[in-house]
Amino acid sequence: MINRNLIIDKNFYKIKREDKKPLESHPLFNIFLIFSTTNKWIFELVAPSLIDILELTTLLHNKVQETLKEYSKKPEYFKISLLDEIYHIWSSGDNLICINLNDGFKIPWMNSVITNMNNKIKSDNQLIAKSPRILLIPEFFDHSNIDNLDGTLVDRLIFDDLLYSKLEIKFKDVIPQMIDRVSSMFSIDKDYLVSYFNTNLNTIEFLKTTESTDSLNKLIKVIDFLNRRNVCK
């Protein structure tokens, strides 16, 4: 559920998810926000409380308008300098995705992730629902190789809703046989699979309890295997 808190004395207002607050910090992002240039809403993903996000968004918006005068056509991606910081900007319809990266991280991989997301997003609600999943990237991919992300896996992380649903098997009596077969096919420890098949957590929640950076890839293969056999509810 999303509720709108209108700040009367500002041009912009914040959209807040009732279930989560924006992150104070993140391994990849200093600032990560999305705002509408027409409807003037702001959706915060990473927003330190010491920063006035309403003021920052107003400054970003003004700077973007100045920068866009240099282009005959609005680019999908560009960057601006504001208050001695570099902000990477992506256009998503009338919305702008704004990111200030932590030192040491390059932009090409992020450009690929955001561009691909924009190509699939069809509405503001979908953008607001899917974009927070980008914040999960450091939890499932090796930090030392973050510039060489597997685009297919990132795409599944952002768009595959099955990863955010609990695994439900139609026929409980065949679970032991399935575990044996899946373990053999994908070289996954049986005890790990027993825990996964019997957990009350969804796949992403379950993965957060593990330490292996390749677990996402393995469980996606398991889910695909099960779906091809139509054994999931």
- Corresponding CATH architecture of the largest domain: 2-Layer Sandwich
The level of helicity is 25-40%
Globally, the shape reads: elongated
What is the helix/strand order?
EEEEHEEEHHHHHHHH
List low-pLDDT spans.
1-9
CATH fold category name of the largest domain:
Beta-Lactamase
User: Which class best fits the helix and strand makeup?
Assistant: alpha+beta
Q: Count all strands and give the number.
A: 7
* Count of DSSP H/I helices: 9
Instruction: Tell me the span between the first and last alpha carbons.
Output: 25 Å
CATH level-1 class of the largest domain:
Alpha Beta
In round numbers, the mean pLDDT is 87
Main sheet attributes: strand count, strand direction, barrel closure: 7 strands, mixed
Portion of residues in beta strands equals 15-25%
Radius of gyration equals 20 Å
Q: What count of structural domains?
A: 2
Lateral strand order in the biggest sheet? 1-2-4-3-7-6-5
